[in-house]
Every structure is written in C-alpha cells, then in structure tokens.
Amino acid sequence: MEAAKALSINESGADLVRRCRSGDGSAWEEIVSSFSRRIFNLAYRFTSNAEAAEDLTQEVFVRIYKTLDQFDPKQGDLTNWLMRLARNLIIDDYRKRQRNPQDSIAEDVEEHIFHLRAVGGSQQNDMERRELCAQVQAGINKLPPDLRVCVILRDIEELSYQEIVDLLEIPEGTVKSRINRGRIELAKILRRMRVVNV
User: Fold this and answer.
1) H or E element in which residue 84 lies
2) Does pTM surpass 0.85?
3) pLDDT single digits (tens) 63-102
4) pLDDT, tens digit (0-9, with 9 covering 90-100), for 41-71
5) 22 touches 68 (CB < 8 A)
6) How far apart are CA 77 and CA 17, in angstroms?
7) For residue 111, what are the CA distances in angstroms to 31, 165, 178, 187?
8) Which of 23, 45, 68, 136 has its CA 20 to 30 A from that of 198?
C-alpha cells in the first residue's frame, strides 16, 4: 500500500502539487500520508523524543505546504524534493538544539518504529527488534553531534557522500572521516552497552 502511494507520487508529483495549490485537500492528504512516517522516523533519529519528533514533523509539513510553489518537476521528483527539504529543516532544528541543549531522554516509541517491522514475524521477534532499535538509538544519542549527523545521514537515511556534502556544506574528506569515526565510536558504545558482542 505504502509502495503504491509512493509510486503514484513519483509518477504524478507535478499533478499532485498542482492539485494542492488549487486547494484540493485530498491531494495534500495523499502527500502527508505517503511521507509522514519517513519524516517522523528521521526527526526521531535527531530528537530521540516522540513528541518532539511529531512537532518537528508537523513543522516540516507546514513548511512544505508553504513552499509547494517552489517545486519544479524538471529539477527532480517530488520525493527527492520533499525529503531534501525535510532533511534541511530537521538538521537546522538539530543544530539549534545543540547550541541550546535541553535535558531530553530518549523514550520508548514502539508505536512509532515502522521501518523495523518484519513481515510475518512473530510477536517475540517484533519485540526484540523494537528493543534493539531503542538500544541502537540510545547508542547514536551518545555520539558527538558532528559524528551523529553524518552517521544518521549515511547509514540510516542512506544518502550518498555527495548528498551529505551538499546538505552539511563541508568537504567530502570531512564527511568520510566523520562517518568512519562515528561508526567506530558507535561500535564501541554498543559493545559497552552489550548490544553487540566483542
């Protein structure tokens, strides 16, 4: 179902945007329902808090709605444009919070973890996956901010090195170095937490 929605967006992004701009509420609902999980998951990776991630997801959609007139199908598809905008806003929020840190503890967000659900998996497997996801997130939270951003963008969002360079506006060598250091540090953290063996 999710794939079918995403496919329809890829095929008719320009039409959907045109319908949204002319006031068609169902077109906007289709965009929101197709992207809200993915944007929420990304926001959660950076906030480690379900409520903050929900707020940030709403902010992202408000910004997307306000800038729909900037979407140009000749520049790429709707999915790429939306996710690029979402990443920029989420990373901007993350940087702001790094400058003004608040005590925030990662919380249990089992109902929000969508991407680890196994098809046909048992309830036990599902519970173990959620627990592992929470432990890995806790490990990611312990990374220094510069390493954390690069690891999330590369290993979770699966962006290319060039996309990360463009997004963070830092040299490719720095990106590669931070990803490498972040992976090594995360492995050490997860070993100390006994999430992974040796």
Assistant:
1) helix 78-99
2) no
3) 999 999 999 888 888 988 999 999 999 999 988 888 776 5
4) 999 999 888 899 999 999 999 999 999 999 9
5) no
6) 11
7) 21, 33, 31, 26
8) 45
